[in-house]
Amino acid sequence: MHALSPAQRTWVTFIATAITLLALVALGFAA
Prior knowledge:
Blueprint: H1 6-30
């Protein structure tokens, strides 16, 4: 796997966090 640039790493972290939060919210509504 190639190294990510700081900008790419920021986007990957941001998107991963957003997806995780959305998943937790969806589980909260489904519960």
